[in-house]
Please model this.
Amino acid sequence: QGREEIRVVGSSTVFPYSQAAAEQFSNNTGATSPIVESTGTGGGMQIFCGGVGVAHADLTGASRAMTQSEFDLCASNGVTEITEALIGFDGLSLAISRASEFSWDLSLEQVYLALAAQVPVDGVWADNPYQRWSDIDASLPDIEIIVLGPPPTSGTRDAFVELAMHVGCEELEFVQAGGFDGDWVEENCSRMRTDGPFIEAGENDNLIVQRLQSDPNALGIFGYSFVFENLDTIQGVALNGVAPSFDTIASFDYGVARPLFFYIKNAHVGVIPNLMEFIEEFISEESIGPGGYQSERGMVPLPDADRAAAQAATLALTPMARPE
Amino acid sequence: MTLLAFMILAALAVSGFLLNRSAALAIQAGGTRTHSLAYFHGLYALLSVLVPVFVVICVYLVLKTPVINGMVIGGLPDGVLDDMSAGQVDLVLATIQSITRGQTFGTPPDWQLAAAERLTSLYAGADLLMVVVVAALSAVILFFVRRQVAAEFRARQAAERIVHGLMVACSLVAILTTVGIVFALVYEAYRFFEMVPVMDFLFGTRWEPQIPIRADQVAAVGAFGWLPVILGTVVIGTVAMLIATPIGLLTAIYLNEFAPKSVRAVVKPVLEILSGVPTVVYGFFAILVVAPALRGTGADLGIAVSSNTALAAGGVMGIMLIPFISSFADDALTAVPRSLRDGSLALGATRGETMLKVLFPAAIPGIVGGILLAVSRAIGETMIVVMAAGLIARMTINPLDSVTTVTVQIVTLLIGDTAFDNPKTLAAFALGLMLFILTLGINILALRIVRKYREIYD
Amino acid sequence: MADITNSGTGGPRKSSLTESSAKIAKRKRADLILQGFGIGAILTAFTVLFILVASLVSTGYTAFVQTHVTLQVFVDPAEVAEERLPRGGFQEVLTASLLSNLPDADPESDARAVRNILSNGAQFYLRDRIVANPSLIGQTISITVPVSDPFDQLNKGNVDRATPEAQRRVNDREIGWFDALDTAGMIATPLNWGLITNADSRFPELAGLRGALVGTFWALLTCFLISFPIGIGAAIYLEEFAPKNKLSDFIEVNINNLAAVPSVVFGLLALAVFLNWFGLPRSAPFVGGLTLALMTMPTIIIATRAALKAVPPSIREAALGVGASKQQVVFGHVLPLAMPGILTGTIIGLAQALGETAPLLLIGMNAFITSAASSPFDASTALPTQIFIWADSPERGFVSRTSAAILVLLGFLVLMNGMAIYLRNKFERRW
Amino acid sequence: MNDMRLTERGVETKQIKMKARGVEVFYGDTHAIKSVDVDIEDHTVTAFIGPSGCGKSTFLRCLNRMNDTIDICRVTGDIHLDGEDIYDPRIDPVQLRAKVGMVFQKPNPFPKSIYDNVAYGPKIHGLARTKAELDEIVEKSLRRAAIWNEVKDRLDAPGTGLSGGQQQRLCIARAVATGPEVLLMDEPCSALDPIATAQVEELIDELRQSYSVVIVTHSMQQAARVSQKTAFFHLGTLVEFGETSKIFTNPEDPRTESYITGRIG
Amino acid sequence: MNDMRLTERGVETKQIKMKARGVEVFYGDTHAIKSVDVDIEDHTVTAFIGPSGCGKSTFLRCLNRMNDTIDICRVTGDIHLDGEDIYDPRIDPVQLRAKVGMVFQKPNPFPKSIYDNVAYGPKIHGLARTKAELDEIVEKSLRRAAIWNEVKDRLDAPGTGLSGGQQQRLCIARAVATGPEVLLMDEPCSALDPIATAQVEELIDELRQSYSVVIVTHSMQQAARVSQKTAFFHLGTLVEFGETSKIFTNPEDPRTESYITGRIG
Ligand SMILES: Nc1ncnc2c1ncn2[C@@H]1O[C@H](COP(=O)(O)OP(=O)(O)OP(=O)(O)O)[C@@H](O)[C@H]1O
Ligand SMILES: Nc1ncnc2c1ncn2[C@@H]1O[C@H](COP(=O)(O)OP(=O)(O)OP(=O)(O)O)[C@@H](O)[C@H]1O
Ligand SMILES: [Mg+2]
Ligand SMILES: [Mg+2]
Ligand SMILES: O=P([O-])([O-])[O-]
Model:
């Protein structure tokens, strides 16, 4: 059977943006709307790399770059030409209910100490003993550590580990004094604690927002767009003195911003109707430019120059190289 | 075209019915008694045509596309498919199909246009052929069936044999579903146990399946001991049953013995709504209403309550199970013969004494059967716990803590990631298998008990 | 109290029937306590149900109305030209009309902010009007369009005007504009038919359940057409014809067990068999229906067998006794008598299928699709998966829409259960 | 009626135990019992006979208010037990039923042990203070019901495991155990084979030493064999009531006569 | 036995309609019927009597293979109808049952109209070609069952709405309508009142003009009244079989004698 509609899978973070592009595309052209599924970055890669042909997806969204092993998986299934399209940034943010009585400003080191499975305790690398924020630093509130965060299946989790946990780990005196290198950090600082304070809350960010609203002492980790929509009830937690906002995320001042991508299966361009037109819509200025409709949904646009380059590269369908 | 084929089939089958029936009637008019009613002669003709030809049409519908695609691909000029992978060939086919729909990109090469034409003509030809085959086959069957009409022909038996066959086929579907599930579970679980020793799985006390999904991902090291997971299931299930059983039983007792008819007529259906509410809704309810309330109460009392407390998930699940238990208990109580109730009342027992000392004990086997079925529901329930229970497995029986369940793990391990080759994903199947075995055991037990109790009163 | 132990000696002591001893009072009290517990149990269940529905209604009711603004729009030929249709500057035309009502807004710098009062879909409302009737170009027409979600929330009182400006999606100036429109009588909050008649959208004010309803319809139809005949056929065979032995016991246990198998396992099976082996399309309601049919079948089989069992053997014997064949007995007498029970079971099974989520997630029925499926093979969502998607959308408007969608789903469930109860009461037979 | 073995009986008048006056029973709109007056004597077996549906069971169930358990059933008129109106609102039917016991057409032992079946009534009424007392009541009741010898070795066996006749006698023992003053029996032998029937009939004759017994039966032979008084019901009315010997040999009412001579066994 | 009114009967020997030899029946491991030989004569009413559980019903159900419907039931031995072995695998039990009709203990009309109840058999056996013919069969059958006058005005009313006795006669009409050659009746009067019983007994006597009738009964009086031949079963064996008058007045077997003299109405 042929297929008339474009199929997009992938990251739940990119999902709202793909949705927006898909709806805009179909409104503008009257063409059948692309079908967008939210499968998580990893899951999307598995489906995307399943092979070429109408049974397989055309695009996949990703909240992190494609990895080497995924690229190889694609290649082994005959998906050899892939175009990487960088579309913008997502501000991963820590947030808490406005009902919280405390003013929150954490360092990444404190975040690490609160959430990691293993931390230095009296100079020894040991299981995380901290149960209250005040245990970590007396200046922090004397309340239980409760952080709701993404499950390991999600790219959000990967990004958080990389951007917050690893960096926080490296800031530890223990690590700096010990002279441990990046590999050591990756080896030892990637595990989130499983003894209660860190709660893997599933992929549903709205659910986390609502749980924050009902529990003023719980922190949540999720996309900035959800903070933005609910500014009246929740607030971003400042990291190293920087509160999350569109500006601080775009400038990478807020510690945990990450790039968003989608990947194009080049072999499908020219076969699946309207695929190229949809890609053009997705990366148009109206979409990902400043003030474009993606920013309404919470995406942080790329700086002008980067954006122009990314758009050009995407339109040229330049196949990506094997990631390092 | 397919519709036409079905219409032809229907028309010929009906005419076969009429034809054979009138033939049988003619024999009867001649004064001979036919073995079977004329109606059965007709029915036999109808079924003889309908069943095989229907199967033929279905097979055609399934095979049409792959066969024609194969023919088109096979008919392409030499060389154009050289060095192409299956997927690329698939894309070529998709391009050709797009052309038949009038969608082209640039100027397609001539061989593609030719193939598109061939594709169109093959489809048209195949449909025509199918209609002809259907008509011809039906006619041939009709012809032979018509010749069978005779006074001594056992048309009833013949028709009943066909119906019997159809019913057996239906049963096979149900059985095949089970076989399919068992096969899928066992096969994947076997692969899992090739990677993780059975003993580690069965007796391990650590469940940390978050081993790297990709070679270069860093995460927790894998540990696949299912005990904490099943323990979590047991904790949540126990909470659920502790809520559902007393409330359900008391409800049944009240409705069965004390409630005025009008109350019963209202309460029963309203309660049934509780079991009809989609479980995803209960999930929202548990996590957004019940859990915070419990946490708040706990905080007021100075007790630490996890925000994923098993109490919330289990409690809400218990609510869901109330009507299940109450209607089972109500049925069991109703099944106790009225004579026992009269017997007790006539001895001067109050209604409460009659209920508690005679009716309820007499209904116990049925009630226990129902409770067991509710238990198997509870451990198989998915969406409530996916939303309201935790993800992290811990060896605890404290219902105020967060625990995880077998179904939660299955869902989280599977949704999102469908690489069927690492133990993380395969572990879901091992868990599924254990769940299947567990519910099977409970069901066998429940059936035994219910059976035994039926024997007493039948 | 008569006491037989002394009946031999002095004859039973006569006691009055009205005389009430402490013992009797105690027994009566025990009776009342039992009743009290029963009523308490029922009230508990009802309270929970009430809280559940109330919490849904309290968040969901606002989604059943939608804020609209009625504008007098001059369809400027400079922006909208007949030759360029369906493209054109509809957005600009609408903005111009808004600006004409907001004297304090600067036509240049505030254009974007003002435009954001309207739903993104507003331009397409206008476009469709004009495409249908190009002669409107150059005229001033009156058009009613939805406002965008932040203003919808504002109008519904979900935005607390007292919160600091930085913590709101709408700032004080925007609120002022909206209030100006409101005072001018241009704002109305009619019933939100779009909730039913629109397909999904990323804009809450445009999003509706049509796609989900159509998808659910196709899925349930498929589910019914497959599970009903097969379920009844299997049940009749197993109950009436299959030899009773270890094997049939085993099959019975298995079918009971199928009803208890977690639904996600059926999703697993569907993923492996229907999608990967048979290559059926992803996200299709047909596949969803097949999957749900596998789950519904055991329910139907169990209900049918129970209904068949309930038909008294005397009816069977009577028919056999006059020389009817087994099949004549079953199809002529037993099945018609069992039909109400079978239908009830089927409806309840379908109601369960209606609310089922997990297996549909596995076969991709949780996609974003802005048009309703026109056949069971087109990609589509279903009601529960639509709820799932909406629940995870950032816009505030989706919170109430999620609850509203749940209420719609509950409405259908109550309807189906009501039907089952009606059937049961109407045809309930006592022999 | 030459084949009837009428039980010999004395002529002494007995005390009246229950007295019904102007009893009417309605099931919804159906008028099932029409103005019935009956006196039930102490130490007497009274038989109710009549064609099916004439209201025998209905009237019997008025005597211990078992009709209360039927929603649509409405009873008017007076029924007195030892001079007390049993339909008086102050009367507790539970206490009434302890005094007016009942045995049903189909034996209905509880699915408990034989012992527990008999001990059930004494237990709920608190008739025994100790286990020994209870044991005594159970044994005595089983003896009275002429089943002690058959079951004394298996008091723990389930009552449902007995044969039909044994079950019926067990039910009688159960009724006797609460020490009733009147015993109502609704066709107690209709589910039994002839041998079991003989045993139960013998028992009834014995029971009348201590109780007032009312028995509903289809079989005129049975009525003739076991009863001293007979009431003939027809279409909800009491047609004739009197000495059994008189009713069977010399009925006053032509309806009685035609029923009895058209007798079918 | 001085109270039995034995039906007068001629001495002519009748043709043998059904013949059973060495019939054994097992329910699973229970041996319910042990080597029974019986001849059922044409135009004769044969009664099966015996204590409860002795196997009367079981044996009766062998005669039209109704036992086939009980999974665990196994029948061995020979039973012939007009010289044909009815357990021959080539025999269609469905046709057999059309020839050997059956009436059950509890009246069991279909939940359909009175007309449809009677017409059902003729319809499935194709006995009537036209509606008029069918009407005729229905009327004739209802007349034979002596119920025509009571129901002729309400043939469309549901059969379940009739009284017990009427229902039983309707069931007989239904059985008669298929034109059977043998009619088996399993305690057809046990659910009936005496008046209805009398009607059915009269009917049975009439039916024997056309059919061979086999009746199971608990009541020896009934057996004596309606039958010409009687078979006495005990614990699964046929103890005695012969002329009813002989069995009741002068039984050969001591077991028969003791059962009959221990008779209870
Ligand atoms: N629960 C009831 N609801 C409605 N009508 C009833 C009920 N029980 C009895 N009847 C009617 O009351 C009348 C008397 O019934 P009852 O059972 O007292 O008769 P009976 O003399 O005991 O008959 P049988 O000999 O068949 O037991 C009958 O017409 C019967 O239909
Ligand atoms: N379906 C059955 N399964 C097992 N055993 C049975 C079945 N039906 C009857 N029996 C047994 O076979 C024996 C004969 O039973 P049957 O019903 O023929 O007796 P009966 O003479 O008709 O008794 P009754 O007078 O009580 O009707 C009994 O011991 C009975 O328990
Ligand atoms: Mg009665
Ligand atoms: Mg019998
Ligand atoms: O859905 P993710 O972006 O978290 O992978």
Residues D 56-57, 186 surround magnesium ion (ligand 3) (CB under 6 Å). Residues 210-427 of chain C form a domain with the MetI-like fold fold (CATH 1.10.3720.10).
